[in-house]
């Protein structure tokens, strides 16, 4: 039985997340009082396999009931039920804008300011966030992108697909991907940005790739990176991980990280794993 608890900041996209789970065939319940979690899990376990994928939205809308969440989670663990926590968050200004656009009140706002309510909610959820299996920041992604992340992570088990490995190239100047499990910094490699003929190209071009890959330091780095990844992937699979996100970062995310991400994708695919590449900051 796969048990997913959807939680996080109000306005971060929990409703859209639940829709994605529904489309994946999960039995979904919104705003279940946490005290009912153990009993609900027991009922699902007694369904003789008819209900074996469950997604529940549990958040501060439960009011006083929310404080019983951790005791309920402990009971789940004691009864042998495995669960995952999907935590959704977004930047404060994004949350405020979304509430203003929807004209809906924040659950903790009362007659006060939304900004104060957001801080109060973050404080109450901080411990729960620390238990999350996956954290998604929805500040700069579309509903479709959120859906894709959920499908990649939670849509594999019942389809019998292999673990999906996503290599994300990025620029440190734009921030590290929040969902990255592993991050490698390639800013020590020679930078094509300082070559006039290469500056306006990106790491997908053969000219930039040839430049990045021609240096002995790059060859040595790739050899060590391949060896590490080759060791780690089977360990993650044995641990039951369904998605692995590997971040490859350079300064701007346009040249070196793109080339190295492409090379790593090719290496992983050659090993027989499902590998995707995403160049987050190439534009």
Automatic annotation (TrEMBL):
- ATP-binding listed as a keyword: yes
Keywords in UniProt for this one? ATP-binding, GTP-binding, Nucleotide-binding
Keyword Heme among UniProt keywords: no
User: Where along this sequence does the record place binding of ATP?
Assistant: 8-15
Q: Which residues form the RapZ C-terminal domain?
A: 163-282
Q: Name one GO molecular function term.
A: GTP binding
Q: Where does GTP bind?
A: 59-62
Any idea where the RapZ-like N-terminal domain is? 1-155
Annotated PANTHER family: RNASE ADAPTER PROTEIN RAPZ
Name of the protein in question: RNase adapter RapZ
Organism this protein belongs to? Capillibacterium thermochitinicola
């Amino acid at each position: 039985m796969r048990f997913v608890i959807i939680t996080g900041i109000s306005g971060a996209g929990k409703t859209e997340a639940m829709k994605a789970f529904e489309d994946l065939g999960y039995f979904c319940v919104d705003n279940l009082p946490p005290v009912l979690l153990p009993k609900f899990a027991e009922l699902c376990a007694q369904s003789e396999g008819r209900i074996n994928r469950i997604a529940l939205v549990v958040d501060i809308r439960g009011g006083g009931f929310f404080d019983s969440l951790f005791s309920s989670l402990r009971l789940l663990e004691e009864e042998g039920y495995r669960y995952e926590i999907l935590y959704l968050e977004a930047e404060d200004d994004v949350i405020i804008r979304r509430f203003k656009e929807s004209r809906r009140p924040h659950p903790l706002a009362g007659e006060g300011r939304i900004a104060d309510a957001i801080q109060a909610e973050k404080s109450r959820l901080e411990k729960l966030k620390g238990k999350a299996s996956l954290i998604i920041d929805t500040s700069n992604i579309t509903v479709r992108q959120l859906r894709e992340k959920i499908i990649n992570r939670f849509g594999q088990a019942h389809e019998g697909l292999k673990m999906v490995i996503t290599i994300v190239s990025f620029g440190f100047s734009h921030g590290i991907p929040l969902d990255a499990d592993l991050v490698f910094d390639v800013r020590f490699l020679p930078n094509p940005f300082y070559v006039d003929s290469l500056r306006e190209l990106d790491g997908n071009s053969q000219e930039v790739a040839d430049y990045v890959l021609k240096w002995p330091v790059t060859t040595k780095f790739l050899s060590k990176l391949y060896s590490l990844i080759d060791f780690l992937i089977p360990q993650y699979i044995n641990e039951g991980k369904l998605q692995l996100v590997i971040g490859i970062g350079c300064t701007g995310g346009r040249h070196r990280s793109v080339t190295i991400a492409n090379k790593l994708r090719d290496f992983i695919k050659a090993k027989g794993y499902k590998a995707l590449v995403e160049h987050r900051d190439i534009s």
